[in-house]
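Components:
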Amino acid sequence: DIQVTQAPSSLSASVGDRVTVTCQASQDISNYLNWYQQKPGKPPKLLIYTASTLEAGVPSRFIGSGSGTDFTFTITSLQPEDVATYFCQQCDDLPLTFGGGTKVEIK
Amino acid sequence: QVQLVQSGAELKKPGASVRISCKASGYTFASHLIHWVRQAPGQRPEWLGWIDAGDGETKYSQNMPGRVTIDLDSGASTVYLDLSSLRSEDTAMFFCARDRASKWKSFSLDYWGQGTLVAVSS
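Structure:
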């Protein structure tokens, strides 16, 4: 199975700050990585697919980058509604696997 | 609009089985895979398997060998997840989710059901 390691597990930042989350795959997955946002009691919401493509309707402050084994997810200007847990997910091979999540809070 | 509506919460005893439904609407049902994902409290999501709603082909995670079955009722645009030999550690929220791609496999999950809580307790 492809392991996906996400960091940090939690962070606290101020409104307007730039926030960065990383995801590392255990093998080369090209650009086959997605990012999801999950709020308490809700299902995950797809934000970015194939590493850098923004899903329709998702604000442009969410940016994904990377390829191979190392990926980055950035919120360019943190907003109060961005409080959530963010997960990466590799979509290169079965079984699909998710990172451990990053809980983002407002300072 | 695309919607996936799941059946309600279940309370089961260890050793029992559970069947969860996921009714799709708002798109061409046969054109997309449906995946099942579970998430234990405070944990990362875990992929369980998918079914091709066009031809019924299935693929399962090997982490729960022989315990997971996914099938469908095309006429009702509904996908089912069966989980057998339940144990306490199966307590989780179960989600169905649509594969983003039409008529191929992207393994990116763009629409999700609201979730079905399965609690296993004696």
